[in-house]
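Amino acid chain:
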Amino acid sequence: MSAKAFEWPIRVYYEDTDLQGVVYYANYFRYMERARTEWLRSLGVEQDRLLTEERRYFVVVDTWAEFLRPAKFNEMLVATARLADMTRATFQIEQNIYRESVDGELLCRGRVKAACVDADTQRPLRVPVSLFEEQLQ
């Protein structure tokens, strides 16, 4: 799975930081969530329609992050998302956060494992391969 990573720009706001103007660690997960949502949208996956029309949704079942360098108030960041692996009912997304651009300093790297779930039974469902066709090539 070697597709180019999806990129989503983010500005660090005052509300994202602590007293020293450094991004609070939990906010990196919020940045990654935004990038994942926009990545899925770029693939044609609208999660609200997935729920209402197909009665399925995604849940995070595991996450990991390594914080390498701090981001600070008012900086521009880029969060990325790329399909790293897929099984019948789960998919793993590799995510990075960089200062200014993907050529900039790597601040945080992470992974998120998500499962596809039936909205009515709460049971795992097969991940529709069609969602990630471009990523699998």
Observations:
- The radius of gyration is 16 Å.
- The CA atoms of residues 63 and 112 lie 4 Å apart.
